[in-house]
Amino acid sequence: VRPQAPDMGKTACPAWASTRLEEEDSSPSPDRTDAAEVLRRLNEEREALELERAAVKEAQDTREIELLEREAHLHNMQRDLEGQQTALHESRKHLALDQARCIALLERTTPRGGGRSSPESFALCQGSPALQHRLGGGDV
After folding, report:
1. N or C: which end of the chain has fewer CB within 10 A?
2. Is the pTM of this model over 0.70?
3. Pick from 133, 139, 129, 126: which is nearest to 93 by CA?
């Protein structure tokens, strides 16, 4: 069995010791003041970093939206250009077919004797859209 220490409550403490403990509790020590100041500065820096992070995120989101809009615009332009390219290809194809028809007609109507034909002997193909356009017959 252990001997127990006598209960030395507040009454057992000398008066000068209790006064000194109360002074330490009421006035902050330099270590506590420094720690509180460091903690306050850390909180301020953390808040500043959070604000900066939010601003950077907002700028990044704005930039991503702009890039997506540009990408959509480029896709639309590419689609339009491909449509124009297809239309030009079809137009060239029709013009080449008309030219081939006219050349074939000229070969059939040109004398084969090896002699040169006069300009009056050449005729444009009657069904040619180019001829109709030149004669004022409408669009190609």
Report:
1. N
2. no
3. 129
